Amino acid sequence: GDNAASAELATEAIEIARDLGAPEIEANALITRSGSRLALGAMDEAEADARRANELAAGIGNTAELPRSLRYLAEVLAFRRQHDKAISTSVRAFDEAERLGLGRSEGISALAALAAEMLWAGRWREADGVLRRMERVGVSGYHANSFHLVHAHLAIGRGDFAGAERHIAALDRLATDDV
User: Rounded to whole angstroms, how far apart are CA atoms 139 and 171?
Assistant: First the structure.
């Protein structure tokens, strides 16, 4: 998509939400802008947006924006190659999602990010555990892509090419069924 336009629109939404005193909407728009800024390579700004969204969400308490803000912050930290911080932030995102009863939505998103980060950090056994947890929670839709991709990478790294092929075939099926 057009990340520059997305960031611009999110900035407008942030300003309107502030004027209206709507911190949950402001947090949502900050998260959107964080993702757009990260895609544009503006990591400092992306991190600042995710952290501010998290502050707002924490002040609200029971809002989906809390695990979402942590998820986006973890993504920024991963791009910065701060693996341990990205991992601990993803764990916090999942824990908050579970606490809020959002394990199958926001929680699975956090687990998908956590599995990928464990893979890239070389923590393969822990990545296996996260993938098993994803299976227990129930993985579908967009997050199934990450699930199968991490499985395939782990299988290749272990020389299990038949296992990798099964997960790549699953990815192909997901892409074929995608609209």
Answer: 13
- Residue 28's alpha-carbon distances to 54, 59, 122, 136, 156, in angstroms, are 10, 14, 32, 28, 38
* Cβ 144 vs Cβ 175: under 8 Å: no
**Pairwise CA distance, residues 69 & 58, whole Å:** 10
Q: Which pLDDT tens digit goes with each residue over 3-24?
A: 999 999 999 999 999 999 999 9
- Residue 73, phi then psi, degrees to nearest 5: -60, -40
Average pLDDT, the chain: 93
> Could you please report the per-residue DSSP string of 60-101?
H-S-THHHHHHHHHHHHHHHTT-HHHHHHHHHHHHHHHHHTT
| Half-sphere exposure at residue 97, Cβ-oriented, CA atoms within 13 angstroms | 22
**Contact (CB, 8 A) for 117 and 87:** yes
Q: Could you tell me which of 26, 50, 28 has the C-alpha nearest to residue 38?
A: 50
Can you spell out the DSSP letters for 110-159?
HHHHHHHHHHHTT-HHHHHHHHHHHHHH---THHHHHHHHHHHHHHHHTT
